[in-house]
Amino acid sequence: MSWFVYLLECNDGSIYTGIATDVEKRYAAHCMGKGARYTKSHPPTQILAVFEHENRSAASKAEYAIKQLTAQKKRALCQQEMTEQL
Question: Is the pTM for the entire model greater than 0.90?
C-alpha cells in the first residue's frame, strides 16, 4: 500500500504537512476539524502537493524532512511538484 506526504495551505497562509494512505479522505477530515489539532485552529483551504512513497516509514522520513524546511522552501517544493506534473 502506498503512503503519501501531503502539504495543505491553511486559511492563515501557513502550511501543514502530514501523511496518509488516502489524502482526499484525510483532507476532508481536516476540513471538518477532525484531522489534527493544528488544522482545527488553522482550517485548510487547499492541497498544495502530494508525494507518493512506497511505505509508511519512507513517508514519515520525508514528512520529517519537509517539516524542517522554511515556509518559503515548502512553497518552492510544491511549485516544483506542480511543474513536474504538467
Answer: yes
